[in-house]
Amino acid sequence: MSKNGKQLTIIEHPESYEVRRRGASTYFYFEDEAAGRNPKGRMTRKQAEQAAKAFVGPEQLKGK
Q1: What pLDDT is recorded for position 36?
Q2: Which domain holds residue 6?
Q3: CA 60 distance to own-chain centroid
Q4: Which of 7, 41, 59, 60 shows the greatest Cβ crowding within 10 Å of its Cβ?
Q5: Half-sphere exposure of residue 50: CA atoms within 13 angstroms, side-chain side
Q6: CA gap 31, 13 in Å, rounded
Q7: Count of domains for the chain
């Protein structure tokens, strides 16, 4: 994904989604097991994916 020459990438990891832009990363952590979610304050996998996509913005997601 790119906009105005800025490269954006969403990468799925075992416990997070990483949004990478020009070497800087923002992570959205999730927990698949409900018991582990609340104490750690983590989202579900689907919530984390949606948060990463919202962070990137809809205009960068066109065609994805």
Answers
A1: 66
A2: 2-61
A3: 13
A4: 60
A5: 5
A6: 12
A7: 1
